[in-house]
Amino acid sequence: MTQKKKLVVLTGAGISAESGIATFRGSGGLWEGHDVTAVASPEGWRKDPALVLEFYNQRRRQMVQCAPNAGHLALAQLENYFDVQIITQNIDNLHERAGSTQVMHLHGEILLARSSSNPELIYPLEGGKDIVIGDTCAEGSQLRPNIVWFGEDVPLFQKAVEISRSADIYMVVGTSLVVYPANTLVTYPLPGAPIYIIDPTKPDIGYQQRVRFILEPATTGVPKLMEELIAMA
Asked: Which H/E stretch holds residue 64?
């Protein structure tokens, strides 16, 4: 039996937006009148932790009501033909709910809470329950969302680089490739690996010969590319 080729997929907010999850970019980066960086940063947390918790509580409630779309489902189906590793910038669980089995959440997961003083203490939020002031870890510190905020290090980035370098085929879906350092991952696949970028707008990454742009949303672009890749598998 021949070994499956390694297909690495980098996904961003666009694929989740097609399931109804707000990205905030289209609304001027505002949430109920607040700059999103103010509710997704260490400074915002220090200033008003209750506001930050409510921001993520609302996003968590919204996510529970959303379902995976055709883009998520196609990526899951590709596991029948390829060794698929998804690196997602999204904090929702739509990839997992679609059936994908290898998913790295580069920026954290909204269904996990962690200690505000010890990042090693992580807790599942059963049923997508809220985090409120007074919810504490085993060491007594307030719980916060297990999310990488603006201005924080991305602990899984080096692992994402290694995965990107291992790709036989690299796919980018639903991201404008402007968020650092995730936007640099597309530069790491080795020269022999073709790169496909699926997004209605053409990200400005320079025009490498091996990059093919599919200017469609994830719900149509991923199934279309899936058929092509299966034919070549």
From this structure: helix 49-65
| Cβ atoms 207, 180 nearer than 8 A | no
Phi, psi of 161 (to 5 degrees): -60, -45
Catalytic residue among 72, 95, 105, 107: 107
How many C-beta atoms lie closer than 10 Å to residue 158's C-beta? 10
Residue 1 near residue 204 (C-beta atoms within 8 A): no
List of residues 6+ apart from 127 with CB closer than 8 A: none
* Under 8 Å between Cβ of 152 and 165: no
- Integer angstrom CA distances of residue 76 from 9, 71, 94, 97, 162: 11, 9, 11, 9, 22
95 catalytically annotated: no
Q: What is the pLDDT of residues 65-121, one digit of tens each?
A: 999 999 999 999 999 999 999 999 999 999 999 999 999 999 999 999 999 999 999
For residue 116, count other CB atoms closer than 10 A to its CB. 18
Count the residues in the chain.
233
Asked if 85 and 7 count as a contact pair (C-beta separation under 8 A), the reply is: yes
Contact of 39 with 55, CB cutoff 8 Å = yes
pTM above 0.90, yes or no: yes
| Look-up of token digits 């279309």 | 224
Measure the CA–CA gap between 45 and 197, rounded to whole angstroms.
35
**In b/e form, how buried is each residue of 32-58, taking b as 16+ CB within 10 angstroms?**
eebebebbbbeebbeeeeeebbbbbbe
